[in-house]
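Why do we care about 3D structure at all? Because function follows from shape, and shape follows, mostly, from sequence. That is the central idea of this module. The next example makes it concrete: a single protein chain, its amino acid sequence, and then its structure expressed as tokens.
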Amino acid sequence: MPDLCSHLGLAVRAVRLRRGWSQELLSEKSGLDRTYVSGLERGRRNPALLTLARLADALEVPLSELIRDAEENSGALYF
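And the structure:
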């Protein structure tokens, strides 16, 4: 599943950049460490469901949008 982590990270990064936010601002809004956000965006982290929910809430998007975008970026279905 490492590819899924990479694609999920790209989905988070895309939403963050659309908002014009830095990783630091996202970390403040989500309550996650900036280095964790960085690792997640680079596909180095495998976030738990509750962590994904915190990120989606902070980014003001449905959790399903992040997962859908990750799937679409990969061109494959994981589930």
